[in-house]
Amino acid sequence: MAGPRVEVDGSIMEGGGQILRVSTALSCLLGLPLRVQKIRAGRSTPGLSSGGWKSKIKVLTRPQHLSGLEMIRDLCDGRLEGAEIGSTEITFTPEKIKGGIHTADTKTAGSVCLLMQVSMPCVLFAASPSELHLKGGTNAEMAPQIDYTVMVFKPIVEKFGFRFNCDIKTRGYYPKGGGEVIVRMSPVKQLNPINLTDRGCVTKIYGRAFVAGVLPFKVAKDMAAAAVRCIRKEIRDLYVNIQPVQEPKDQAFGNGNGIIIIAETSTGCLFAGSSLGKRGVNADKVGIEAAEMLLANLRHGGTVDEYLQDQLIVFMALANGVSRIKTGPVTLHTQTAIHFAEQIAKAKFIVKKSEDEEDASKDTYIIECQGIGMTNPNL
């Protein structure tokens, strides 16, 4: 089963948890033993330079990285060494991917969406259907919000030719976490390539502004109203429908507030802007930040927003045929995912400036991939 060991430098490019997520997922899928060295996933606290040299040391300190690695190990009965907090090197030896019920718990507000990102490609190539119980933060900083996963990632990634169900049992926020999501999916024989190059025009803008726990409902209304005002300045001819929501007490753990706004186009492209409340930041500012992020994602002429780019790379690499997506500026996360998909899966990517007339004045790119046509050996 096992091929030659793949050696990965965990300090290059994005140099964080994403290298671990992409490389262990591909290692698991392809049955290749893996060693990742020089891991610097802990990331020094940004903006605090007073820590002197200490803040420069980056190691595997995040519980969510550990729970992601442990989840992949469990999905395929693999062997994982060096996976403890503070470690800078891991080795992973995968075995056969199996379906069934799997649980991963970050024990913190670590993101359930990142757990989903790492496990989903693997369970698509399992021997039987899977049910993933993911626990942690559903609406957490530095990661997609679960609403993004359901409203944007899901409908687009399903174009690769599979379906999944995502059941949000409980929402969890920073710092406690305590959220739970159940993902159910059946395996596939192969993934279809996708072609997302026609942007169309924006037809709908909608979203949700939420409060949970002790935060007053007025905060949700204020976030929504500020976001609508901000979007109206640029897009005048569309009704902007942002619903303020009070999360039910029994479906949310802890206190939190935030907003996600989605723009949908005539060709089915989806773009988002989102923001989470923090202590001391007023509601208007949270709403405006999400609106400005959405507007920025609509300016570049791509068919996916900056957060979807990198999440599609592994699927493109595995698909049977040529996939194309049109994007705005290619993010470091995307460049990192491409690098490891080429190194480990041997997929071939070409990134080039879009040659369409309407993109001439914009920073628009085409990411093209000749996928490896991964076939599920169990089906």
From TrEMBL:
PROSITE patterns: RTC
Cited Pfam families: RTC, RTC_insert
Domain RNA 3'-terminal phosphate cyclase positions: 13-350
Residues where ATP binds: Q117, Y307, L308, Q309, D310, Q311
InterPro entries: RNA3'-term_phos_cycl_insert, RNA3'_phos_cyclase_dom, RNA3'_phos_cyclase_dom_sf, RNA3'_term_phos_cyc, RNA3'_term_phos_cyc_type_1, RNA3'_term_phos_cycl-like_CS, RNA3'P_cycl/enolpyr_Trfase_a/b, RPTC_insert
Domain called RNA 3'-terminal phosphate cyclase insert: residue spans: 197-298
Recorded superkingdom: Eukaryota
Keyword annotations from UniProtKB, A to Z: ATP-binding, Ligase, Nucleotide-binding
Catalytic activity: a 3'-end 3'-phospho-ribonucleotide-RNA + ATP = a 3'-end 2',3'-cyclophospho-ribonucleotide-RNA + AMP + diphosphate
Active-site residue list: H333
GO CC terms in record: nucleoplasm
Function description: Catalyzes the conversion of 3'-phosphate to a 2',3'-cyclic phosphodiester at the end of RNA. The mechanism of action of the enzyme occurs in 3 steps: (A) adenylation of the enzyme by ATP; (B) transfer of adenylate to an RNA-N3'P to produce RNA-N3'PP5'A; (C) and attack of the adjacent 2'-hydroxyl on the 3'-phosphorus in the diester linkage to produce the cyclic end product. Likely functions in some aspects of cellular RNA processing. Function plays an important role in regulating axon regeneration by inhibiting central nervous system (CNS) axon regeneration following optic nerve injury.
Protein name per UniProt: RNA 3'-terminal phosphate cyclase
Lineage, uppermost ranks: Eukaryota, Metazoa, Chordata, Craniata, Vertebrata
